[in-house]
Amino acid sequence: MNSYSLYGQSALVTGADSGIGKGVALALAQAGAKLLINYAHNQAAADQTVSEIKTAGGQAFAYQADVSHEAQVQAMFAELYKQYDTIDILVNNAGLQKDSKFVDMTLDQWQTVININLTGQFLCSREAAKEFVRRGVVERVSRAAGKIICMSSVHEVIPWGGHVNYAASKGGIMMLMKSMAQELAPHKIRVVSIGPGAIQTPINHSAWETPDALNKLLTLVPYNRIGQPEDIGKLAAWLASDEADYITGTTIFMDGGMTLYPGFSDNG
Ligand code: BGC
Fold it and tell me: Cα separation of 62 and 171, whole Å?
């Protein structure tokens, strides 16, 4: 049982049909929030997230939108307001990888990752922030006028060869988040990032699907286990709650120590 509640708050989670997004959506719903489950392609998976939330007594609906498409994002927010009147929590989670050696990386691989991972967070944050500013604080709901949680990565600080588009998108999210936090704080809007390390989801299945791959991955994780979507979900729900009311403009890493650069533990 949580010591806090998100009861009465409306939350939009992008890319909530699988992986970390799904874990976050389930945790927010468990804390009492009503959810919009955004997805890009996999309607069956999004419906499954909705049905898990409803079975547990929560409220949710699925909505398809490409977060990098301005008109689709605006239509999604319009539907959210139709169903729940307003928004209290935005979780910018949708993201993907299009990995390639740098010299072979196509403009399309670069652009797709920047569009979804970074521009998508801009477009959704802008819509949410407009509504937070318009509505302001509703005391009985939350001490903040709104909360934006950006899903970043350890790769906002750890360079990642073979993934420069992805690492650049996450580095961009860091300054997007901090600059939004600075500008929006006077409106009582909190903006924070979560920096997950290796979490067991479809995006990195090749890194954990065989025992060999997993052992290799765990050499990067001092705490010696792979993370689960539930780990990130619990953090996101807490960050969205008034328990975290004084946190804005920072990234909370949740990575089993990956950002401790374990390669240096017996070297350097
Ligand atoms: C990436 C994963 C990777 C993890 C740790 C995440 O941001 O999406 O593929 O396993 O970082 O390197």
Answer: 29
